[in-house]
Structure formats: structure tokens, C-alpha cells
Specification:
alpha/beta, seven-stranded mixed β-sheet, five-stranded mixed β-sheet, 15 helices, globular
């Protein structure tokens, strides 16, 4: 791309450095860009405005080239925009990263990462289950680029990842907590494997956010989030982000975003993300407290086979989660009795919680992954079986409502389930519920 290969673009810097060890709530409230140069006014706005311009006036052709190659600032919106930069700066400070980039969606962040750091012939190790969109990319799109992947069971120890590696393995693409069953990965242990084998590691921490789990200081190369979920947190904007461990990684992604994928987030959506982050630490604290109380209640209900929440001692990854997470987030997985009919009865009988594919909003959301996020559109029966996505699995995103109201709502819906008695036909005639005769 001509001289653009020589750029040395740097991530935005804050108006003033914060004290070392500043709390996340202080970061999200005080993070701000420096005033525009040259100063045209004595007073600066308290909130970064929405800068909707697509392009910027320059004085001379030479100034344009200098801005683009040397300063990397304010030539074209897809390259730099103050509203987007302000949100990226806050994310970077929370992540303790070299730099962060916002994308038009989480899927855009994923695909942009793959086409930037991988090449034809490369191999990825991931796990199953995982985000259904990632599974779809691995199975249907990367093979078109002559890239291959192997998936180990989610929650596996590092030996499983070592054994899955090939001479051409270039990336570990992992999640913790995992979608949809909340499996936990020992992040520092896998980072050590990645370093030993000279493999990059990207961790999707969407369900933890940088508030509950800071993975860049653990050695992860790329920290990825669907900002659509908890970071934005109000189910009103779609966005994704990637934060990097090194400046070089940031510059590679920035160049790819500008010159190849064109996936930078627009200023209006960036403003929404940035505005929502001001309350992110407070929201994650409440999400976590509600999820723990609700998961404890679910464990006691006779129509629930099992509950997986990293904050419960019964969770297989509980001890690891305690080591690497500040708290345990709002995502809960559990399985109801009655298979498909039991799940249908439950999700359609709730009065406070909402049946939807969404996750990470201020409201409580539920769905049955077997027919929703990991359903026929994204996965076949064999893939669902490998990913442990059963007919009775419920994915629960606990919101900010009064937790006693949530517990009462879940109990009344569970009480309507009639357990399946015909084990030869799970989820069919013998499993019909009182609510749906």
C-alpha cells in the first residue's frame, strides 16, 4: 500500500496520567483525550462530543502527507476520529494494554484479527463449545482461505492444547468464561504454553469484561470483547474491540483496519459505548452479585439437573476462576429436566426475564442454545453433541433487577416443568408440560 507500509501510528494518550493503581471506576470516569491542538478555546467540554465529519481540512498537500504518515491523526474518519479514540483510550486503560481498537461488531473484530495475523496454511486451536459465530468462521470461512482449526473440549487443561498443536499452529483462540457453558480456562498456564511454542493467544473475555479479568497483564497477546454485551450493556449498540499486548500488534491491526477490512467503529456508536462504560464497574458488581444468588437458588430446585456458574464451589473451574477473576460475572448455564419440552416450558413461562438471543444487558435474558445461539443456523447435531449443547441447556444472562423477584420468577417457571419419563424419546411426547399440553 505504498508509503503506508512505513507508518508509525501510535494509540491515543490520556489528557493526564492517572495515579498508579487507580481503580477501574476512577479510570472510566476520568479518562479523557488531550484538548485539540491548537487550542481554539479556553474551556474544554466535559464529555467528548460526537464528531460526525468524514474528512478534515488541511492547509497544504505536504501537511496531508505529514499528518497521515507521521502524526496519523485526523485525515479521514476511518483512520482517526476523536469520539472513537476517546472510547478506545478508556478500554486501553482498563485493559492495561499497549493500545485498543473498536470495530463495527465482535465478529468484525474476530475476522479482522484472523486476516491480520494469519496467512494461508496456518492452523488455529480453539475449543468447543465456543461462541457460535466463531465456530461458524472456523468451520465454513477459514477453510476458504486455506486455514485449518482443531477444537479441544472447553475447560481442558493445557496438555490438551499442546496435543492439538501442529507445526503450523499460529494462534490459540479461546474464551474464559466460555459461551455458553461458562467453562473456565487457566489463562496464565495457557500463556506459558503459547510462549513455549511461539504461538499467539487471543482471549475472548466478553463475559468477564476488563473489570473482572485483566488478561493483557497475564501475557495474552489479544484481548477481544463483543462490546455489544456487557461493555455497552444496554442492548442498544453493536460493537467489538481488540486490545493488544505490544505496540507492534496494535499498529498491525490499525493498518489492517484502515487499509483492508474497513471495520472501524463510527463515532455515534463509539459515543454510546463510551457513555455506557462510565457505569461498567458498578454494573458488573451488581451482575455478579445477582448471578451468584440466582445460581445458588437454581441449584436447589428439583427441576434443575445441574448449574454452572464460576462463582459456585461446584463449578469445575471455580478455583481457577477465583485466581484470575475479581468476581464472576452475570453468565450462568444450567440444564432443566424434561429435555426440549422442559426447556420450552421454562423459557416461555418467565414473567420478569426475557427470552432473547441477547446477552449482557441490564435486563435478565434467557435462551435455549440448542434452538437459539447454537441452533441449526450455526451448528449441526454432531457439532452440538461435541460442544455439549443439550436440549435442556439454558443460557442465562443475569440483569440488574431485584434478585428476589428473579428467584421467584425462575422458581414459578421451573415448577411448571414435567420431567421426561420416556428415556427412549427424550424431549418428545412423554415430556409435554402442564403449560403446553
Amino acid at each position: 500500500m505504498g508509503d503506508l507500509g512505513k507508518v508509525n501510528w501510535l494509540p491515543p494518550v490520556p489528557k493526564r496520567p492517572l495515579p498508579k493503581g487507580a481503580d477501574d471506576q476512577t479510570i472510566v470516569i476520568t479518562s479523557a483525550l488531550p484538548r485539540p491542538e491548537p487550542h481554539s478555546y479556553d474551556m474544554a467540554p466535559l464529555v467528548e462530543p460526537i464528531h460526525l465529519t468524514t474528512s478534515y481540512e488541511v492547509a497544504t498537500p505536504e501537511a496531508f502527507t505529514d499528518d497521515l504518515l507521521n502524526r496519523g491523526r485526523y485525515v479521514y474518519q476511518r483512520l482517526w476520529n476523536r469520539t472513537t479514540e476517546a472510547a478506545e483510550l478508556t478500554i486501553s486503560q482498563l485493559e492495561q494494554a499497549a493500545g485498543s481498537l473498536l470495530y463495527v461488531s465482535g465478529v468484525a473484530a474476530l475476522s479482522s484479527l484472523f486476516v491480520t495475523v494469519l496467512k494461508p496454511g496456518d492452523h488455529i486451536v480453539a475449543h468447543a463449545p465456543c461462541y457460535a459465530g466463531l465456530h461458524h468462521i472456523l468451520e465454513h470461512y477459514l477453510p476458504r482461505l486455506n486455514m485449518t482449526s482443531t477444537q479441544v473440549p472447553a475447560g481442558s487443561d493445557t496438555q490438551a492444547f499442546r496435543q492439538a498443536c501442529q507445526p503450523n499452529t499460529k494462534l490459540f483462540m479461546v474464551e474464559s468464561p466460555c459461551n455458553p457453558d461458562t467453562s473456565i480456562l487457566d489463562i496464565e498456564a495457557l500463556v506459558k504454553v503459547a510462549r513455549d511454542l511461539n504461538i499467539l493467544i487471543c482471549l475472548d473475555g466478553t463475559f468477564a469484561t476488563p473489570i473482572l479479568q485483566k488478561v493483557i497483564p497475564m501475557g495474552v497477546d489479544f484481548s477481544l470483547h463483543s462490546c455489544t454485551k456487557y461493555i455497552a450493556g444496554h442492548s442498544d449498540v453493536i460493537a467489538g474491540c481488540i486490545s493488544t499486548r505490544t505496540l507492534e500488534q496494535y499498529q498491525q491491526l490499525k493498518m489492517s483496519q484502515f487499509g483492508f477490512t474497513g471495520t472501524s467503529l463510527g463515532p455515534f456508536e463509539a459515543y454510546q459505548v463510551h457513555h455506557a462504560m462510565r457505569t461498567l464497574p458498578i454494573r458488573m458488581e451488581k451482575h455478579s452479585a445477582n448471578a451468584l444468588a440466582l445460581s445458588q437458588a437454581l441449584e436447589k430446585h428439583p427441576m434443575v439437573n445441574w448449574v454452572r456458574y464460576p462463582g459456585l464451589p461446584s463449578h469445575p473451574g471455580h478455583e481457577i476462576a477465583k485466581k484470575q477473576m475479581k468476581s464472576f460475572g452475570g453468565l450462568v448455564a444450567f440444564e432443566v429436566k424434561g429435555n426440549a419440552e422442559g426447556a420450552r416450558t421454562f423459557v416461555t413461562s418467565l414473567k420478569v426475564a426475557t427470552l432473547t438471543a441477547a446477552i449482557g444487558g441490564i435486563k435478565t435474558y434467557v435462551n435455549n442454545p440448542y434452538s437459539f445461539s447454537h441452533g441449526p443456523l450455526m451448528m449441526n447435531d454432531e457439532d452440538r453433541a461435541k460442544a455439549r449443547v443439550t436440549e435442556g441447556l439454558i443460557r442465562l444472562s443475569v440483569g440488574l433487577e431485584n434478585v428476589d423477584d428473579l428467584i421467584a420468577d425462575f422458581n414459578q417457571a421451573l415448577d411448571l416443568i414435567v420431567p421426561c419419563t420416556d428415556h427412549t424419546l427424550p424431549g418428545h411426547g412423554s415430556c409435554l408440560s402442564q403449560a403446553h399440553p
